[in-house]
Design a protein that fits this description.
The complex is a heterodimer of chains A (about 300) and B (about 140).
Chain A lengths: L4 H33 L14 H18 L2 H9 L4 H17 L5 H12 L89 E10 L6 E7 L10 E6 L2 E6 L10 E5 L6 E5 L7 E4 L10 E9 L2
Parallel strand pairs in A: 2-8
Antiparallel strand pairs in A: 1-8, 2-5, 3-4, 3-6, 6-7
Helix pairs in contact in A: 2-3, 2-5, 4-5
Chain B lengths: L2 H29 L14 H18 L2 H10 L5 H13 L5 H13 L27
Helix pairs in contact in B: 2-3, 2-5, 4-5
Chain lengths: ~300, ~140
Amino acid sequence: MTITAPQRRQKRWLLPVFLLIALAAGIGIGLLVSWVLWPVEYVDVAPASLHPAHQNEYLLLVAMSFARNRDLGRAQRRLATLGNPAQIEAQLVALTEARITSGQKNAETRALAALAYALGYRRAAFQPYLPEILPTATWTPIPIVPTSTPRPLPVPTDTPTATPTETPVSAPTDWLTGTVPALTATPTSTPTPPPTWTPTVTPTPRPRYVIVEQERTCAPPGGVLAVTVLDANGNPQPGVELLVRWNGGDDRFFTGLKPENGPGYADFDLERGQVYELTVVGVESDVALGLDTEGCEGRPASWTVVLRLTRP
Amino acid sequence: MSGKHGWVVILAMIVGLLGGVGLGLWIGWVLAPVEYVDTDISFLHPAYKEELILMIAEAYLLDGDLNMARARLALLRLDDPPNAVADMAEQYATQDKPLAEIQALATLAAALGAQRAPVQPYVLPTQQAALPWGGGQP
């Protein structure tokens, strides 16, 4: 069979058409694969890329953690993982104000107010929510008990991996199921009536041992942690279980086992090179930190710690 | 269509298809990849998840609300939340971690039913878990 010249011209014209059609089909297949079937999946994301509702939950947890440990530096480092600090602090303030406006006067709101206040946002609306232990005008964010050396948050590198994924999640859909209470999501813009409660904090007193004295001494023989535990009336308290902890280890001991030193007395031998922490077992208690044997020019230092129960 | 010309067309289509697939993948994976700007909290890097578990434990000590702690842990989609918290408490106890953090984790783990002997001394009584100013719901 012979091909005429016009037929040949027509077939030459078809070639780029076929090429373009194949190219378009190829692009379509490529996009289907890369956007739908195996899209880039960020499996190890940073808090900054969280959904706003989850960011608010993260903010809330940072605030509650701060309310517990009073470590403002750590709270700030955690907030920084959410993105631009100024923006995040504004988000924190907005969240706090929204909760106050909607009348949520609980531990969470108080924690948010305390953190916002500690960060320098001294709003009048926050005052009723601040813990009594925070003086309202001149409080500086110094922890009640000395904290250990601040540890930087891990900063993982977000490496996009093109691994197959189930379904791209663009928004949380199943935060909570069952009977658990709703979490605090992004406050809605629905106007809420002004709160009707009286804005006064009603603290719920709990028994708690507080450190009333923590002193390093250089008297011989040294290397002794001497603890005295007092009850709410200031009387020595025997039978109190104490927990001492050091890097990778812990031990427990009781007051009153050396009655010659008083019923509320207990001691523990400190080893050189270790740093110890002390608390009371089974009850809320301050933690005595930084108990080491340094600072006495060659001789191991000793420590005197006095803990007193606050009246419930 | 002659045999030779047919092969040219087929070759052109294959080249076009492969080129197109390559271009499509480049667009989809490099030039304009899917961006997860509103990701779920369960996608967090393990280090951030660990930080969150700790914060959840500290929040539990503050408000004493176990249901809320459970709900927050559920967000992380852990396989076994109670044992994950207990594992973390044990791990912290063997590391140079602050006592208060071990207490928070051990207390939450115990409240969730995952009691571990090594961290039992760190467990705080639940009813006394809250700070004076932070306790409970209104």
